[in-house]
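Q&A log
Question type: sequence-to-structure
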Amino acid sequence: MKQRWVWIAFALLIALLATLFVNYVVFGDVFNKEESQHALYGLWLYKDLRGLDLGAFWYDTQRQMYWPFLHSWIQSLFFLFFGVSFAAARLMSFVIFLLTLYLMFDVSKRFAPDGWKIGLLAVGLALTSPIMLHYATQNTLEGLGALIFLASFHFYTICEERKLFIEYAILGVLIGLSIYTNYLYAYLMIPAFMLATSSKLGPLLIEGFNLTRKGEKAAIPFIWWAYKKLIVLIILLAFIAVWFFTAAFNRKIMLFLQAIFRYSGGDPTLGVWQSLIFYPLAIIKQYAFSPWLGFFVLLALFKPFVATAYRQVNKMYTFIWTVLVLAIFTVPTKAPQFIYILAPFICLIFAAMVFYWAEKLQKKAAIVMLVLALPLVFSLPRLAGIYFPPRPTENMNAVLNYFRQQIVPRYPIAASFNLQHLNPELITFRFWDWNAPVMADPVIGQAEMFRNAQYFLTVELSDNSPYQAEVLDDTLDGWNRFLADKRQAGEVREFSLRSFPAIGVTAKIYEKELHQEIPQVAEN
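Response status: OK
Response body:
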């Protein structure tokens, strides 16, 4: 009976993951702005690796200061193996999500002899969590941060039970990697480990004081404890030093502080009450597919007595609440993804609470759980909408494909617009293999773009276009006015036009008139 249910759960898991992979990784739309920026970083390093240029690889690594380089290192390897594409970049996040699910299941087996049941429920909750499913297929840092935090916790629990150097060395490396992933995550993770470790310091100091009267042999456990913590501390400090002291120390420190306290000294983005309830509300609304379920997920974080029933859960509470307190009271900016590193822990704690009460209620458990789960039926359409999103007949990927297909790759092109799903970083990434200059950065300036390009890309948005809400600044309007003036002056002509009515976008390509100077481009 048990084996049959395991196989059913496994089959459902595969079906859900396959659906997620096909709808978002294979057939997903183009990158948003943040995804495009991360993809560009990975693309730099991919080019360096392909050309075996270690000097350029080091330079491109060091210039990633706002978001350190670990994500782009891994992404460059995915580009090497799977090619440069939207799907290859998002495949990395999907693989990270799979590793996170596996680790959640593996961690749960340490809770109790039947901990695999807790793990199965936790994985199920993750597969219905809107925010976890979102970042499972987004080319961003959130998934990597959560995986590193969960892996660090896993090795931390192992270290507490063994006396091997290698586990402590791995733990130090994993915690240190947070610095190379995201400054905010490092700020939240490192204190959590420090607090979890120091919780044992008081009793051990008392024991150490008493050991001074008992001789050297009696002091061995205390010395061993200090030695193990020193291993982790030295490795962690080495990772921090290598990053901050190798180059641009002042700039890296400034960016580190900005990433955490960017609004310190100014007006907070939220009032005191709004700040206090922001993350609890985010857990209710975004970390579960139903607000009703989200309420019980949040409730689990306030039930520490569950920790007395399962091993290692008490440490998990320490990690969760350290991160939440820091995020609520010391980080002025609030966003649901800032605590995403807690998502696997939240799923595990909720699953542990469910089985705790199931054991308490015994025969009544099934009836109680069924009654409590009934309101979830009303939220099932939301869950179905996540796995089976509406697929428009057209999207921005079609627009970019149109641009590429209309122009011979040996001519320089220019574009200047900044939408969430059509931006300078996206243009640079999509045309990375163009055999001529691609000018998309507004810093270059319209005049210089016009002087050095032969073709000019732009779009016009109808009033009902869904992309109207994604316009980030007035760059697109300014670019269209600039091209209209050049056309009126007879300096450019309309080369090609295509309408995408399903998304309210009209894509246009302008070409310099023949009497204008055409840049000479050497063919690669």
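Response note: The beta strands are 413-415, 438-439, 455-461, 492-500, 505-512.
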